[in-house]
Amino acid sequence: MPNRMGVRTISLACLAASSGGLLVSCDKDKLQGPAAEVKKTDVKLDLPAVPAFDLPPAPADGSRTVKELRVKGRKLLDTDLTVHGFVTWAYDCKTAIRKPEESDKDLQARIDEDPTLCERPKFYIGDTAQTPPEKSLWVVDVPRPYNALEVKRIKKKDRIDPDRCEPDEKDKSKSICPPYAVGDEVIITGSFKTSSPHSERNSDGLLVYQKMKNVTQNYESPPPKELPPGAVPGPTGPGQTPPAGSGAPPAAGGKAGAPATKASPEEAVKKKG
After folding, report:
1. pLDDT > 70: what percent of the chain?
2. Whole-structure pTM value
3. Can you state the percent helix, strand and coil of the chain, rounding each to 5?
4. Neighbour tally for 1: CB within 10 Å
């Protein structure tokens, strides 16, 4: 008990000196613990400004903006709508699956032999051409040309699928396969969903393609063709092959196949780089 006795002795000495009228100064600092290591500072932190969450003004044509769908699109899920924006990224099969030093001829031969190497056409759109992919909207189930195996196995009169076009269509204005490139201004109508008929998925929402107007390339989707009586389009039709590819923009391996959840836009950017 030596420590307690020492404190008690000092306290009693101070008390005795006070009661006896003596002006004795007791050093209280000796009874205090160590000083705190944290000290006040006059340095002012230069914090970044709080970002604005204001939505851009609604387009005059009545369409939606990409930011609106990203911020409060939940209430618009499972509805058909039109989005006005710019293409910020586009999937390109040949770029995604090309092997080092592979020639164009060898690459095309590999695709013709196995069309499932390619994923279904898809692209991103943003409110401006400079919108980064991670802040863009995913547009999926875009019409594609019939592949080499389909052309070989299906007679032209039976190639009537509403989501496919002839690969050698001369008049592109009559083709349902839309032209698009990064930077193009587009107006797209589709269904805003979290999954698509071709098994693309995104919990933040994606746009299942229906039709498009490409302002930059002066293209507008033609009206759908009427099917002949008794015609059955799609995978149940004569000689059809399964849908070519699904999944997110270029992922490691580049092999399309089983349904997949959309990878983050950052992965698409890394793959492109």
Report:
1. 67
2. 0.66
3. 25, 20, 55
4. 6
